[in-house]
């Protein structure tokens, strides 16, 4: 069965429809939260009656303290449940990563000299720039004395120029 691509206008229409439904749900959820809070307050916190003597006020304070302790216990229990659920979520995330495996990014091929590789591995403090040509000694060729024409021997002139070129390269 071939899958047809959805047109952009249809996709836009569906997206706006879903967003409007979600916005309606969020508004309804806010209204439900306000109604639940009002119902809870009406049930657990009746309006205080301040008329009465000291004994009545003491009784009201005792009731308030008992409710505060009850709420603290509930809060502690809920906090423990949340921490336990967070730990389970972390464990599940680790399992997901283990099962999915880590996707390694494609590495670019980089040409790198030995010095830059050492800098990358060891850091810039431990770099050693090795100039191998600086430690070389200049070696002069031994010229064999050949009985030939002094002015017309072109090989001697070429060898002399080659020695000068080598001198400039090493310095």
Quickly describe the structure:
The chain contains 4 helices and no strands. The protein has helices spanning 8-44, 54-100, 114-122, 154-170.
Question: What layout of secondary structure does this protein have?
Answer:
Blueprint: H1 8-44, H2 54-100, H3 114-122, H4 154-170
Describe this structure in words.
- By secondary structure, this protein is an all-alpha fold.
- It contains 4 helices and no strands.
- It has helices at residues 8-44, 54-100, 114-122, 154-170.
- The mean pLDDT is 79.
Order of helices and strands: HHHH
Secondary structure class reads mainly alpha
Question: In terms of per-residue confidence, which ranges show pLDDT below 50 for 5 or more consecutive residues?
Answer: none
> Whole-number radius of gyration?
44 Å
Strand content: under 5%
Query: Per the principal axes of the C-alpha atoms, what is the gross shape?
Result: elongated
Number of strands: 0
Q: What proportion of the residues is helical, as a percent range?
A: 55-70%
N- to C-terminal distance: 75 Å
Note the total helix count: 4
Overall pLDDT confidence: 79
Q: Biggest β-sheet: count, sense, barrel?
A: none
Highlighted features:
single chain; 171 residues; mainly alpha; 0% strand
């Amino acid at each position: 069965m071939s899958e047809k691509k959805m047109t952009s206008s249809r996709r836009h229409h569906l997206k706006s429809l879903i967003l409007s439904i979600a916005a309606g749900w969020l508004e309804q959820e806010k209204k439900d939260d306000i109604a639940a809070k009002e119902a809870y307050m009406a049930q657990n916190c009746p309006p205080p009656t301040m008329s009465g003597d000291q004994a009545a006020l003491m009784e009201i304070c005792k009731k308030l303290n008992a409710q505060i302790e009850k709420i603290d216990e509930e809060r502690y229990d809920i906090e423990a449940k949340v921490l336990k659920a967070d730990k389970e979520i972390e464990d599940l995330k680790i399992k997901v990563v283990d099962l999915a495996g880590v996707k390694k990014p494609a590495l670019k091929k980089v040409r790198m000299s030995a010095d830059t590789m050492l800098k990358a591995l060891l850091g810039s403090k431990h770099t050693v720039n090795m100039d191998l040509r600086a430690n070389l000694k200049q070696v002069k060729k031994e010229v064999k004395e050949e009985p030939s024409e002094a002015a017309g021997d072109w090989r001697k002139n070429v060898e002399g120029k080659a020695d000068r070129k080598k001198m400039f390269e090493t310095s």
